[in-house]
Amino acid sequence: MTKTDVSYQNEGEFDFELPPQTRSVSLTHVVGDDDAGVRLDKLSAMVFDGFSRVQLQAYIDDGQLLVNEVLLKPKYRVRSGDLVQLMANLDNHSEDLPEDIAIDVVYEDDEVIVINKPAGMVVHPGAGNRTGTLVNALLYHYPDNAHLPRAGLVHRIDKDTTGLLIVARTKSAQLHLTEQLKDKSVYRHYQCICQGVPSDILRHALIDLPIARHPTQRTKMAVRDGGRMAVTHILKAQGLGERYSLLDVRLETGRTHQIRVHLSHLGFALVGDPVYGNAVKSGLSEKCRRAVQYFPRQALHAYQLGFIHPKTGDARQFIAPMPDDMQELMTVLQQ
After folding, report:
1. In whole angstroms, what is the distance from residue 306 CA to residue 254 CA?
2. Distance in angstroms (rounded) separating the CA atoms of residues 106 and 311
3. pTM as predicted
4. Alpha helices (runs of H) in 156-244, residue ranges in sequence order
5. Counting C-beta atoms within 10 Å of the first and last residue's C-beta, which end of the chain has fewer, N or C?
6. Residue 183 bears catalytic tag
7. Strand intervals (E) in 10-111
8. Is 37 left (phi over 0), alpha (psi -120 to 50) or beta?
9. What EC number(s) would the UniProt record show (predicted)?
10. Which of 96, 158, 160, 273 is labelled catalytic?
11. Which residues contact 328 (CB under 8 A, 6 or more apart)?
12. 171 by DSSP, 3-state: which?
């Protein structure tokens, strides 16, 4: 199979006008002897990475995918030496505006980006959060991601949770990583500081409790019969003083607020959780009580992320150090 030449071009580089934030793609492929006789739609799906066969068939029908500058049918059998050209406008899935917001990029290549999200950053725009989000930042730093759903996001973490997120840079990578989330070849480990002592917590090392929307408080989730399956694994528990613990938690499923809901339901609420938290434990020193009472967010950090690279097939793993605020809280609780 011969090499496909690919170039992604921003608005203004072609001689026709594109709508704001629209991106276009220009790809060419010269058919080799090995591919002679293959249907045009099948060959296009093989060589133009990042597009589904349905998308490519639509491009053929619209005259955006040509053979030797001629419009042909999807069933056309390509010949050795044919020049297959794709010059298409990419749909922009987001009307969100790029913003020059700093992001902590742990790793990037042509397929994926791994980001360490700070506390206080919303992942994607929604009601009341149209700006200042990770999506707005991605659209600024990676403008070609505008044609991807959710600007390439594969999963999300809560506003006040810190830690690692995967972002795809191509449609094929996004689909590949989404499938990995479903088959659990993406793994996510979290650190959290919660009420309770290790001996009590580790009796619930496997939490398999369904989660659904709270019956009366619509902004909350709850453990409920008939909810979606939710499985959380508590791998380690380290005592912090006499009443709190640092946990190492692995998610098997990814329900909204899953760790927070599961631990709170069992009586081990996260420190600082404004939605699912409990009153501060009694018997603490004044310094510890104040540290817990005024901790400004849920003490939850997505510290480890692993996945299969969608292009190379290699297993990749990344670790983000615990943020300073959680380290400082641990230091106080251990005094």
Report:
1. 15
2. 18
3. 0.73
4. 171-183, 198-201
5. C
6. no
7. 23-30, 65-67, 83-90, 104-108
8. left
9. 5.4.99.-
10. 158
11. 291
12. helix
**At 261, which helix (H) or strand (E)?**
helix 258-265
Helix residue ranges, H only, the chain: 40-47, 53-62, 134-141, 171-183, 198-201, 258-265, 286-293, 324-333
CA 323 distance to own-chain centroid: 20
Q: Are strands 300-308 and 162-168 parallel, antiparallel or unpaired?
A: parallel
Q: Using the structure block, give the residue that is written with the tokens 């996945």.
A: 307
Full pLDDT tens readout for the chain, 335 residues: 444 443 322 222 222 233 334 456 788 999 999 899 999 999 998 888 667 676 788 788 777 889 998 888 889 999 999 999 998 766 555 567 899 999 999 999 999 999 999 999 999 876 667 789 999 999 999 998 988 888 999 998 999 999 999 999 998 899 899 889 888 889 999 999 999 999 999 999 999 999 988 888 878 999 999 888 999 999 999 999 999 999 999 999 888 899 999 999 999 999 999 999 988 888 899 999 999 999 999 999 999 999 999 999 999 999 999 999 999 999 999 98
Measured distance CA(211)–CA(261) in Å, rounded: 8
Q: What is the CA radius of gyration of the chain?
A: 24
Integer Cα distance of 170 and 137 in angstroms? 17
Q: Are 211 and 223 in contact (CB under 8 A)?
A: yes
Type of residue numbered 46 = M
Query: Which stretches within 28-163 are classed as H helix?
Result: 40-47, 53-62, 134-141
